């Protein structure tokens, strides 16, 4: 399958700094692709290049196997982080204008807008001015105009900012539905929870360079550190003694006779070996492998640490 | 192309539909009509008849002060107190006492008593007529022939005549030329400032609303800029057109219907006054009246007829449009570089300076339309829209006009290109205060 988007060795320099340095990405169709990175990493620069708002100094971008060209803007939907609408313009009129700028015919735009307005139950907003709407309501309108022309590639930069949890869920479901209908989504955010929830693949950019990319599952597997969390009833001393040289106790927590410990396996030892060793002294209540969260991976990669700082307790 | 049209459409209708546009459209002509009508109306106000009782102890002025439509003189004798009593009774509005020595005094000081202050025109009229009577009287006293004086006094009025290319003589009038030139230059100036600033505000609005990035993901920034400039230009043209139509309607209505009689009166009265003044100076004034046209407005209309109207109108349309386009692009660039209107000041000054300089030198250009200064600034694209307009009614060689127009078009293309580069970077920059140095760097960013 041809990737919907291929970014090849992109370089972008501004007067005082390098925004992108030899960045390459492949975005598979009908996937949700997370574009991650700290502030100022170069994400927005890359997104703007994909949207043809600016051009790269070096490198090329392929859209559906073709060189990115002005005609492709009609197939891309973009929700920028810095977004807004004309405050003095009526909602319907404005949505019609933006839809037509994306190449929709007047009648087509109208029909599609009516469909979406109905779906979001906002039909009575049509003649209201944007400034009369609340921030969350504005965001809804903004989301509609982004996806209205049924883009093949949807680029969402922090799409959930400005939404309450209920509406955020609504938008989340819409995004998943759009993907199931065939759209590919590039999703840029700092909210790692939503990355785990939504993204199939990610790329992590820091200081103009891509540090990491791949599927979320694979990446999390790669960053596993063979650490387990065990909750048991019984004697703590006996448990510790039973951990022979094959495992190291990292953390322990006790609540009366219920203990929770984090244990790191050493060498090539298997979890079963550990269990066998401690079974005599403890009644196992739970046993989980600790898989690093995207948040941990993000922090560790950006801070260039070799070991993972697994403070969070996300488990799989 | 289709998208550009959409942008122009939005920019145009979103402005034309605003209440402020309607208000401006109505207020503009009212203001202009006001400027045209109020002086006339002011002059005509207070046209009540003034009855003046003249108590002339010298006897020189008795029956010699001519009546006008609003001033009626009655002569009498008696004491000043008795005369003043008439004022109280209300039989007369004014009482004038001329003392016995009026003929011999170095300076004659008649006293004018009133209950209600008369207008300055009445005072002036009395002053002038009395001075003339005294002038004639003294000359006669010295046995000087008034006919000789009349023959000696001849008005001089230069008729400037342009020798055209095809050898024809063409009468021109410098004052009329200057008036035409300045009026048109001011129209261009207003267009540039009023609508250039609208372009700038529009850009800032899109930036502060944060809609600009959404739009430039659909169209090229240059298209957005161009669409805005053209859209606002059309708003400006619509507004000017409506102003002209409404002003004409209002002023014809007022002049033709409301003030018809008064204007006719005014004209006859002016003539009368002039006649009176000369009558008293000389006996035969027929020749004089033929030389001097009584109505200045008529004079102006005559001269206007001599100016090549189509030529000027076409040139005006050209400079009006391209002058605006050039500056609008610069205004758009300024708008893109700032976050709010308050920050525009540092960039505004260099952009508006050429316009202000244009007017500063326009005066000199009008006095010497073919000087090197005039030539240079009427060709330099940032000043030519205004300076050339001032020069044009005086006649400009074809090659100079052509060069000026070409350089304006080239200037427009160059500055629009330059502005486009600043614009496309500026609109996506938030929060940082832009410096000149930074603007310079933006010019070299790759699209």
Which stretches of chain B are low in confidence, meaning pLDDT under 50 for 5 or more residues running? 282-294
Strand portion of chain A, in percent?
A: 25-35%
Strand line-up across the major sheet of chain B? 2-1-3-4
CATH architecture assignment name of the largest domain in chain A: 3-Layer(aba) Sandwich
* Fraction of helical residues of chain B: 55-70%
Quick structural summary:
Chain A is an alpha/beta fold and 316 residues long. Chain A has helices at residues 43-50, 91-101, 106-119, 135-147, 165-180, 192-198, 216-222, 236-242, 271-279, 294-302, and strands spanning 5-13, 18-27, 32-36, 58-63, 66-67, 76-79, 153-157, 184-188, 201-206, 209-215, 227-234, 247-255, 258-265, 282-290.
Features:
heterodimer, A: 316 residues, alpha/beta, Rossmann fold, Alpha-Beta Plaits, 2 domains, 6-stranded mixed sheet, elongated, disordered C terminus, B: 447 residues, D-Maltodextrin-Binding Protein, domain 2, 4-stranded mixed sheet, two-stranded antiparallel sheet, 17 helices, 67% helix
Description:
The complex is a heterodimer of chains A (316) and B (447). Chain A has 316 residues and is of the alpha/beta class. Chain A folds into two domains: 5-220, Rossmann fold (3-Layer(aba) Sandwich); 225-290, Alpha-Beta Plaits. Helix content of chain A is 32%, strand content 29%. Chain A contains ten helices and 14 strands. In chain A, the strands form three sheets. Chain A has a six-stranded mixed sheet with strand order 6-7-8-3-9-10, with helices on both faces. Chain A is elongated and about 75 Å long. The two termini of chain A are 31 Å apart. With 447 residues, chain B is α/β, with parallel strands linked by helices. Among the domains of chain B are: 50-144, Periplasmic binding protein-like II (D-Maltodextrin-Binding Protein, domain 2, 3-Layer(aba) Sandwich), CATH 3.40.190; 181-247 and 307-442, no CATH class. Chain B is built from 17 helices and six strands. In chain B, strands 2-1-3-4 form a four-stranded mixed sheet, with helices on one face. In chain B, strands 5-6 form a two-stranded antiparallel sheet. The radius of gyration of chain B is 31 Å and the shape is elongated. The model of chain B is unreliable at 282-294 (pLDDT under 50). The chains are: A alpha/beta (316), B alpha/beta (447). The A-B interface holds A 14-15, 48, 51-55, 57, 70, 73-74, 76, 78-80, 82-89, 97-98, 100-102, 142, 145-146 and B 3, 6-7, 10, 14, 205-206, 209-211, 213-221, 424, 428, 430, 438, 441, 444-447.
């Amino acid at each position: 399958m041809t990737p919907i988007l291929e970014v090849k060795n992109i370089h972008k320099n501004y007067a005082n700094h390098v925004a992108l340095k030899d960045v390459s990405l492949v975005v598979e169709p009908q996937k949700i692709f997370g574009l991650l990175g700290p502030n100022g990493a170069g994400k927005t620069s890359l997104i703007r290049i994909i949207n043809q708002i600016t051009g790269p100094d070096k490198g090329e971008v392929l859209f559906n196997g073709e060189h990115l060209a002005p005609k492709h803007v009609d197939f891309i939907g973009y929700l920028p982080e810095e977004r807004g609408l004309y405050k003095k313009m009526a909602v319907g009129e404005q949505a019609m204008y933006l839809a037509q700028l994306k190449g929709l015919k007047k009648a087509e735009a109208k029909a599609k807008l009516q469909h979406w307005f109905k779906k979001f139950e906002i039909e009575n907003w049509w003649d209201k001015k944007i400034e009369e709407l609340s921030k969350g309501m504005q965001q809804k309108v903004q989301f509609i105009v982004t996806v209205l022309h049924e883009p093949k590639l949807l680029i969402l930069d922090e799409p959930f900012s400005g939404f309450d949890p209920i509406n955020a869920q609504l938008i989340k479901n819409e995004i998943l539905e759009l993907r199931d209908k065939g759209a590919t989504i590039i999703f840029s955010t700092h909210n790692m929870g939503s990355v785990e929830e939504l993204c199939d693949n990610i790329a992590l950019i820091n200081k103009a360079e891509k540090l990491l990319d791949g599927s979320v599952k694979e990446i999390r597997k790669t960053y596993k550190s063979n650490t387990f969390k065990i909750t048991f009833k019984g004697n703590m001393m006996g448990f510790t003694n039973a951990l022979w040289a094959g495992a190291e106790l990292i953390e322990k927590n006790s609540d009366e006779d219920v203990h929770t410990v984090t244990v790191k396996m050493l060498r090539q030892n298997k979890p079963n070996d550990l269990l066998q060793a401690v079974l005599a002294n403890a009644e196992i209540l739970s046993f989980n492998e600790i898989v690093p969260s995207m948040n941990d991976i993000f922090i560790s990669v950006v801070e260039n640490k070799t070991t993972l700082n697994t403070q969070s307790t996300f488990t799989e | 192309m289709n998208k550009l049209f959409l942008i122009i459409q939005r920019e145009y209708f979103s402005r034309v539909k605003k209440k402020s546009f309607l208000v401006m459209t109505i207020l503009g002509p009212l203001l202009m009509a006001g400027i045209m009508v109020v002086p006339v109306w002011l002059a005509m106000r207070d046209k009540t008849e003034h009855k003046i009782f003249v108590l002339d102890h010298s006897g020189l002025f008795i029956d010699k002060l001519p009546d006008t439509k609003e001033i009626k003189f009655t002569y009498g004798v008696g004491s000043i107190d008795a005369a003043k009593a008439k004022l109280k009774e209300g039989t007369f509005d004014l009482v004038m006492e001329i003392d016995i020595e009026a003929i011999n005094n170095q300076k004659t000081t008649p006293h004018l008593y009133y209950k209600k202050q008369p207008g300055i025109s009445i005072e002036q009229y009395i002053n002038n007529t009395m001075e003339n009577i005294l002038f004639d009287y003294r000359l006669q006293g010295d046995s000087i022939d008034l006919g000789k004086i009349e023959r000696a006094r001849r008005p001089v009025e230069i008729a400037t005549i342009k020798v055209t290319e095809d050898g024809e003589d063409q009468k021109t009038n410098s004052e009329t030329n200057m008036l035409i030139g300045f009026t048109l230059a001011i129209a261009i100036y207003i267009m540039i400032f009023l609508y250039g600033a609208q372009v700038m505000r529009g850009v800032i609005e899109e930036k502060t609303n944060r809609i600009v990035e959404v739009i430039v993901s659909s169209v090229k920034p240059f298209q957005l800029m161009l669409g805005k400039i053209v859209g606002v230009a059309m708003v400006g043209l619509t507004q000017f057109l409506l102003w002209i139509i409404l002003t004409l309607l209002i002023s014809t209505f007022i002049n033709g219907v409301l003030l018809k009689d008064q204007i006719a009166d005014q004209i006859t009265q002016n003539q009368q006054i002039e006649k009176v003044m000369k009558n008293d100076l000389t006996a035969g004034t027929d020749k004089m009246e033929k030389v001097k046209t009584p109505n200045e407005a008529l004079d102006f209309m005559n001269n206007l007829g001599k100016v090549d109207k189509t030529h000027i109108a076409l040139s005006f349309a050209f400079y009006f449009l391209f002058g605006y386009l050039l500056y609008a692009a610069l205004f758009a660039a300024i708008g893109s570089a700032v976050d709010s209107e308050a920050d525009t000041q540092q960039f505004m000054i260099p952009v508006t300076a050429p316009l202000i300089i244009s007017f500063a030198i326009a005066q000199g250009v009008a006095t010497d339309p073919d000087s090197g200064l005039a030539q240079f600034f009427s060709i330099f694209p940032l000043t030519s829209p205004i300076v050339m307009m001032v020069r044009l009614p005086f006649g400009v060689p074809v090659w100079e006009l052509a060069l000026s127009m070409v350089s304006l078009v080239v200037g427009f293309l160059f500055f629009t290109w330059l502005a486009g580069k600043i614009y496309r970077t500026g609109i996506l920059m938030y929060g940082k205060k832009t410096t000149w140095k930074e603007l310079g760097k933006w010019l070299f960013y790759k699209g």
